[in-house]
């Protein structure tokens, strides 16, 4: 294709992944070959693109030619109908059904559940405070996020802070643990035809017992709600309502399999991404105490002691700037991907049908062509005076275009409510255990390899 690329061995880029991790490899590839290069994801050819103009064409202008994402691993049957996996017209229809469940009115209704989860987070963190020791915050952020997901998706009160062995929490974490299925992932990358075979055999990257657990949870919830006329405001109920309304209006609602798949997808998409954003935000403001103090003063001025909610967090302009800058430096996902559904040309480059496009987010968000002093934490980039200068296709923590993250509003709300509540109650301080520039893990998420360690003081 005339695209610069390293010469791949039989294993493609896998040895480089193992040595440098996805982030390290993406940085090296971009530095060595430029913003458009070729890689072999195992034996799967792919273009690695971090050119903002090309990204705009792929994600927005020519979206109809790049509607679908590429699946590199097989899905168990229960996940085949998730909005992240379905394609073409099926995706378009499902997206139209799910999107209204994240409306402003629905977000407002979920705030009481989110605040309850925050109260538990505050209580648990307060019990761990030691004036002489740092606290590892990652597990606390995970427990909070899982509590929120259980409450807002299934109406369940799991209190994972005090019940870490809760079946919901344990099985949800197992669905996100790819280490057990590493052999399956490597095999599919080396021999892509195996993906379809394993799909047919219902062998995927989710442990079967965890899959069965969630099938039972959803089925039981569906049965209970058919018999219970009480009004619930969680994600599962909203999908059930959409299922009923659409079947009455158009003869086609969500099937039970679609409700199940998207309920589980809600867990998988929201757990790590949101908990990592909260932890990295606390890390950044601890490293920059002047930023933390300004955020605290803003909260005191706008909210005082009031609990945060969907409406009043909109008043916190500086907090929004902080979280936006955190997501620039530490976007939860290392990459986004799309697949060409026809032969096409993007900015003069011919792209054949079925070619995989990968966007290296971490690299893109630190590209000096798009960002001044890209390694610096500077919330002022996102101030009302400056944010118009940001290229929207060089900043994509939630994707871009019609197939961006469907739950972006809820993710932002859950993150902001947590940060506000924590700053109302605590001060976060850098300690000798704090890695100023965290060493990052080598997997598909941008996560601190050694955790987030900070000292915490009550206000």
TrEMBL record:
SUPFAM superfamilies in UniProt: Cytochrome P450
Location in the cell? Endoplasmic reticulum membrane; Microsome membrane
| Any one GO CC term of the record | endoplasmic reticulum membrane
Q: Which is an annotated Pfam family here?
A: p450
The Gene Ontology terms for molecular function here are:
heme binding; iron ion binding; oxidoreductase activity, acting on paired donors, with incorporation or reduction of molecular oxygen; steroid hydroxylase activity
Read off the Gene3D superfamilies from this record: Cytochrome P450 (1.10.630.10)
Record flagged with keyword Repeat: no
Q: What is its main location?
A: endoplasmic reticulum
Per the record, membrane topology reads: Peripheral membrane protein
Q: Which cofactor does it need?
A: heme
Keyword annotations: Endoplasmic reticulum, Heme, Iron, Metal-binding, Microsome, Monooxygenase, Oxidoreductase
**Residues annotated as binding heme:** 405
Q: Which family does it belong to?
A: Belongs to the cytochrome P450 family.
- State its role: Cytochromes P450 are a group of heme-thiolate monooxygenases. They oxidize a variety of structurally unrelated compounds, including steroids, fatty acids, and xenobiotics.
Q: What is this protein called?
A: Uncharacterized protein
